[in-house]
Automatic annotation (TrEMBL):
Protein topology in the membrane: Multi-pass membrane protein
Segments traversing the membrane: 40-66, 72-89, 137-166, 178-195
Keywords: Cell membrane, Membrane, Transmembrane, Transmembrane helix
Broad class of where this protein is predominantly found: membrane
One Pfam family from the record: LysE
Keyword Transmembrane belongs to the record: yes
Cell location: Cell membrane
Protein name, UniProt field: LysE family transporter
Entry superkingdom: Bacteria
Length: 196
């Protein structure tokens, strides 16, 4: 049975937690100011939308030609979500590595391209569609609503990280264990809800 609360929890927790997109948004805002980082944030959301579209097409193919794949994808999806919960719980601050490639990190196109090499985003796209949406809904309207909702959440998340980068950094450093535990428990709930 579809659980809207589990779906929303998974989307929000996955999008708001520290990851390459959010850290880069925060870093861009700290270096170049919020205004210059906005196009990167919207590029991230647009790239994410493309990842989700690819995931929808992949799932359509798999569900159409291999109907039993749903059970397998549910198992792997829940395992991935539990692993993500563990990773969030154990998360520790990492120092930024110096980049060897000189590229415009604030560019809209850079943000889109980065989504296709972002493992968190790729796994998220496959997980959210194959576990929370496709087993229950496959209509164009619902899929469009899911895409729009994800675009908005990702855009808001990146913009929040950019706008409040230094505040979030201090807040996460101060309350990291508590916040990570809460987010990890929400992800465990998401994984368990796949079987309810």
């Amino acid at each position: 049975m579809f659980s809207l609360s589990a779906f929303i929890s998974y989307v929000v927790v996955s999008c708001i937690t520290p990851g390459p997109n959010n850290i880069m948004s925060m870093s861009n805002a700290a270096k170049y100011g919020y205004r210059k980082s906005v196009k990167f944030c919207f590029g991230v959301a647009t790239g994410f939308l493309l990842i989700l579209l690819c995931s929808i097409l992949c799932n359509m193919f798999l569900y159409h030609y291999i109907p039993r794949i749903e059970q397998i994808m549910t198992v792997f999806g829940s395992i991935y979500i539990l692993w993500l919960a563990w990773a969030v719980y154990r998360d520790k601050p990492k120092e930024e590595k110096k980049r060897k490639i000189d590229l415009d990190t604030t560019a809209f196109s850079t943000a889109i391209v980065l989504q296709f090499v972002n493992p968190k985003g790729l796994l998220y796209g496959l997980t959210v569609i194959s576990n929370f949406v496709f087993p229950y809904y496959q209509s164009a309207g619902v899929l469009a609503a899911v895409l729009a909702f994800n675009w908005v959440v990702v855009a808001i998340s990146c913009n929040c990280w950019a706008l409040f980068g230094s505040v979030f950094r201090n807040f996460f450093d101060r309350y990291r264990k508590i916040l990570n535990a809460v987010m990890a428990l929400l992800l465990v709930y998401c994984a368990l809800s796949l079987y309810l």
